[in-house]
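2.7 Reproducibility. Because tokenized structures are sensitive to small changes in the input, we list the exact sequence used for Probable LRR receptor-like serine/threonine-protein kinase At1g34110, including any N-terminal residues retained from the expression construct. No trimming or masking was applied before prediction.
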Amino acid sequence: MNLTGRIPQDFENLTFLVSLDLGSNNFYGKLPREVTRLRRLKFLDFSFNYFIGSIPSTVSNISKLETLDLTFNSLEGQIPKEIGHLKNIRFLSLAVNNLIGSIPEGIGNLHNLNFLAIEYNQLTELQILSLSNNDFDGPIHSEIGSLRNLQFLHLGGIIPQGIGNLVNLVKLSIEENQIIVSVPISIFNISSLQLLSLMKNNIKGSLPREIGNLTKMQNLELTSNMFTGEIPKEISDLVNLEVFDITLNRFSGSLAMQIFNISSLRSGFALSDNKLTGIIEDNLCKLEHLDTIYLNQNQLSGSLPNCLGNISSLREIHLGSNKFSSNIPTSLGNLKDLIILDLSSNHMDGSLPPEIGNLKAAIQID
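Resulting structure tokens (single pass, no recycling of outputs):
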């Protein structure tokens, strides 16, 4: 069709209307508020027209709405927070308009939503964007890279190519997504990142050396993937790192000596359930602020460093299911705050040192 003009006010009389498709015409003017009185409406398409003005907040009155398509108009202003009340919405497209501001938090509560398009607007002030735990059926557009003020991003689905352009991003979380098998190198160029969580995905291959570019990183969580190869020595460039968790992967080789130079490491030194080999060097004891060590379920061998008992902040030591041998260090008795000591399923010999009796806070010793 090639209809033109304004939407007649009399449309509000069509109270039994379920579907209204006026897309790809030449309608102009403001979006008619009268349409928002059509309470039975499930399908509303005003895409590819010349509508101006703002999206009326009364759109929330169409509570049965499942499809709302306003693509390719000249709509302005902010996305009304009332859109978050459309609990039955499945398809929502506001793309290619002149909308500004941020995405309302309520959109994250639209549990039936399976298609969301907001690209080609002017939402450049957006600082927090959460698109995780959805079933979107296509990739997120690369235009996400234009959100230069974005600081917090939670994603599900395919990682958009433009993600490396988010130069102010502080926290990036891409979790529990079995379709992701690789990570764009561009992520490791976002030097502002302080938290990167790629937990519970299906990521294969080695951890890129470019990880060393993330010098502001404080929290790196890569648990439950299929990373292989050695831990890159460039990890030591993360001088602000406090949490390092690569549990449940397939990392192999010896522990990178350089990792013990990261004196900022505190909690979450978790490398368990991998294929790490070799011995634990005395350099481990440089990590004097550690409160937990998870190195269980690997193939580590040799003796435990006696200086382990000098890390007075330790509360948990998990070294079970390895190939450690020789005696249990007597210095472990110095760890007054230790609550868990797990040395089970190793090849330790000798007797249990009496100093272990000094661990008054312990609730588990294996």
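The longest strand covers residues 26-30.
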